[in-house]
Amino acid sequence: MARGLRIFPKTLTGRIMLVTALGIFLVQGINSFIRYEAMKGRAVVEASSLIVAVTANRLDFGAIEPSRPLERRPAVRTLRSTAPLVVEGFTTTEELAQRVAMHLQSVYPEVQAVRLSVGPIRNLPEQLKPRPRHMHAIRRSDIIERYRRGEAALLSLKLADGSWLHSTTKIRTRGMLPQWPLLIETLLIYIGVLIPLLLVIRQMSKPLQQLNNRLSNAGLASDEPPLEPRGPDDVRSLIESFNAAEQRVNAMLTEKDVMLGAIGHDLKTPLASLRVRIESVEDEDERAKMATTVEEMVQILDDILILARLGKSSETPVLTDLSALVEMVADELGPDDRLAVAESAEKCRAMVRPVLLRRALRNLMGNALKYGGRADIAVRCDGTFVAITIEDEGPGVAADQLTGLFEPFARAENSRNRASGGTGLGLTIARAIARAHGGDVILENRSEGGLRAILRVRQ
């Protein structure tokens, strides 16, 4: 389903509110139906009482006037027949019929049997179809037709001479369940239920959102205080557990930094000593190869230490002009204009750790120069993210290998291999730094050839 046609919301608040609103609508619909049926039952009783009164009047006077209602009475149609009348769609109301029979037979002994049924007016014989008492000459047929769109009560009496007396009147259901009061009642129910529910949900969702933001921004550990436990007991317990876990992780990161610093110091000292001893080797070619190996080991060690320490950096974020930072790194790597930085229409500033971000940029630009010879660089910002795009003119990378390049010590085939140098940690470090700044690094092949690297950081 397209996003514009999405009905079911994604958020917890939206889903609870939607389900509750639908539940209230369903319950109110059932309630309205029950109330309508109850009011309809009372309307049937009222119509039956009217028919009984009119029929008693006919029995008192001994005359049947099928087309003339009693004075000041709604229209009641009567008909005498020699046989019982069976009308399709009419159902008998047994309990009410028994009550009517007891009343009439106690006053009029000639009443032998009583039948009371309810059904659609359109199924009645024409002589028994109710009609309004007052009609204008204009559009008389339309008035009668509208009046007959409903249900009628049919009372059939079997008299002592074997004949049947049938009387009908319309059951007046119009206006039984007024729309405006019902709408106002439904609206008040929605307000009385949804507003308190929204307040309760917000009390739960707000601390959960803060917890989610803390988890989303997890990367470079900071000195932020623990989250304040708020909301219901379950949410408070979750936040307290997260605070405890965060403290344990920070403690492990601190211990790891101390250990890595010691390892780095212990390893670099013998490497420096080995570099000095290499100078005593008489074979110049062997001496150069050994020096290159030592330098590569030092570079690998530096990259491993940088990657390991990304979890907890002591560098303070600073509001930085990223366009100027990019130009500075480009000047350091490519003074011969092999790195062309496009002019930015606006200054893109963000709270970043400049030293770490420069390391990520150097890795990406260095790769572009190494495998493409030159690169075009552009900086763009949209108020949420700053995107630094680096496009080289190299051979590119197979599509199925793009994701694997971010793995430590991973290299693509062809030109991106061990022979071209590097430790295999450049992209890993660049992506870790970008994610620590709320962004990411994306690699994609250009249609015209070459590779495009996009480093994004949150503003």
From TrEMBL:
Location in the cell: Cell inner membrane
InterPro entries from the UniProt entry: 2C_sensor_his_kinase, HAMP_dom, HATPase_C_sf, HATPase_dom, His_kinase_dom, HisK_dim/P_dom, HisK_dim/P_sf, Sig_transdc_His_kin-like_C
The GO molecular function terms of this record are: kinase activity
Q: What is its main location?
A: membrane
The record lists the organism as: Sphingorhabdus buctiana
The HAMP domain covers: 202-254
**SMART domains the UniProt entry points to:** HATPase_c, HisKA
Q: Which UniProt keywords apply?
A: ATP-binding, Cell inner membrane, Cell membrane, Kinase, Membrane, Nucleotide-binding, Phosphoprotein, Transferase, Transmembrane, Transmembrane helix, Two-component regulatory system
Name any one Pfam family assigned in the record: HisKA
Q: Which residues form a coiled coil?
A: none
UniProt protein name: histidine kinase
